[in-house]
Amino acid sequence: MSDSGIGLREIKKQLTRESIADAALQLALEKGLDNVTIEEIANLAFVSPRTFSNYFSCKEEAVATAGTQANFEVIEQLAHRPAEEPPLQSIAHVIIAAARERTDEQVALSARKLRLSREHPSLQPFQTAQYDALEAAMRHVVAERTGTDAETDLYPGLVTSVAVAATKHAITTWVFSQTPREHLPELLAEAFEQLGSGLPAPQPGVGPSPGE
């Protein structure tokens, strides 16, 4: 088979995966996770239950995967940041840019998905797995940019783990503080700024929080 044939096949598989995941999240939000069956997800995605099982182990994994295709774009953009730019600054740039570029609908859907995971602890291991996958991909990009080993050197794993933790916490804070959509990039920027300054303890009464 030609390289173009292999590429087309992979694209089709990715599109099928995204379709199933999107269907799973849509139904979970409409009906409640506990009331959704794999058969219903498969029907909405126009695939068979067997095809569903080829992509996901359970409905929770499918729901947690919805919307994560944007992570691939973040990794690609990170790989193309200026070589002289500090890795933490590069990660901050692509994460904040991604938050600004997402549509209001995409951001709202991500917020609903996060709230759903709080309501259903069975989703949380799969949500964590998505963050772990993002962190692993970032770690390899940082290792390549810094001439370090992604598996045996401390630096690439350290910088990416704190970056992903900051991202996750900023998003969670934004969702549950119920501040306007435009404050999400501000919270992300503040999180990375605090990382860059060594996480100094906040001074009571000094400076407003985003959204105030």
From TrEMBL:
<dbReference type="InterPro" id="IPR001647">
    <property type="entry name" value="HTH_TetR"/>
</dbReference>
<feature type="domain" description="HTH tetR-type">
    <location>
        <begin position="14"/>
        <end position="74"/>
    </location>
</feature>
<keyword id="KW-0804">Transcription</keyword>
<dbReference type="Pfam" id="PF17754">
    <property type="entry name" value="TetR_C_14"/>
</dbReference>
<feature type="DNA-binding region" description="H-T-H motif">
    <location>
        <begin position="37"/>
        <end position="56"/>
    </location>
</feature>
<dbReference type="InterPro" id="IPR009057">
    <property type="entry name" value="Homeodomain-like_sf"/>
</dbReference>
<dbReference type="Pfam" id="PF00440">
    <property type="entry name" value="TetR_N"/>
</dbReference>
<protein>
    <submittedName>
        <fullName>TetR family transcriptional regulator</fullName>
    </submittedName>
</protein>
<dbReference type="GO" id="GO:0000976">
    <property type="term" value="F:transcription cis-regulatory region binding"/>
</dbReference>
<keyword id="KW-0238">DNA-binding</keyword>
<dbReference type="GO" id="GO:0003700">
    <property type="term" value="F:DNA-binding transcription factor activity"/>
</dbReference>
<keyword id="KW-0805">Transcription regulation</keyword>
<dbReference type="InterPro" id="IPR041347">
    <property type="entry name" value="MftR_C"/>
</dbReference>
<dbReference type="InterPro" id="IPR050109">
    <property type="entry name" value="HTH-type_TetR-like_transc_reg"/>
</dbReference>
